[in-house]
Input
Amino acid sequence: MIGVTSDRPPRFTPTWFIDELNYAGRENLDPSHVARYDAKEDASAASEVALLKDLGLTRESLVVEFGAGTGQFTVEVSPACAQLIAVDVSPLMLHQLQAKAKALRLSNIEAVRAGFLTYEHIGSPADFIYSRFALHHLPDFWKAVALDRLHRLIRPGGVLRLWDVVYDFAPSEAEDRIEAWCATGGDAVEGEWSRAELEEHVRDEHSTFSWVLEPMIRRSGFEITDAEHSQDGVFSKYVLRAA
Ligand SMILES: C[S@@+](CC[C@H](N)C(=O)[O-])C[C@H]1O[C@@H](n2cnc3c(N)ncnc32)[C@H](O)[C@@H]1O
Output
């Protein structure tokens, strides 16, 4: 069945808890950005699924994806696993994802409107967790809480594939590195990332340093079995195994 789950009880959160929707990223709640997302961002879904297969993904696996967006990875992994739970806070993104899954007649996808901090996992623990370009939406305190929650819903030995905008450089290099990254942005938002969008990412979202994130990852109970940092120091890809 494909659908936003309505029978999952919303997680009770105290009044000091953040509202993840307020941190979802302005553009992810903007219909025009969501509509053009796939034309400007290629999530390399086929090679990501191939990697997960190398790491043990089978047709029996349960995969939970956080920040699934328009579902590029979701629809690619669906035929390679038993069940895929696609979690995202943005109803617009989930709408795109569901339309894609329906058009492809994929029947093992459950789309859940929730976030890293509010998704309630029911049933068997996940074999794999996948998240690309989403954890940076949370401030660092909440990233650590989110990673701990992910560790609680994955089985021992399960794999978390985490790929995000992560700054792999020293604070003294920050201004030069960030300026160099922003300079790669163009003027247009169609088919590419504009300079204004990259600036917005740095200014308004919560990407952090690798040397802040990696201790959080270990502290939450994951072993970093592979870490790949892009040469410009702006993107990091991790393979993390749950202890
Ligand atoms: C840049 S998009 C990435 C989409 C997709 N993973 C990809 O790689 O193309 C970020 C996604 O994370 C979602 N998101 C933002 N905050 C989130 C949160 N706290 N929990 C789950 N998803 C969140 C946004 O709604 C958006 O769909």
About this structure: Strands lie at 62-66, 83-88, 109-113, 126-132, 154-165, 222-229, 235-242.
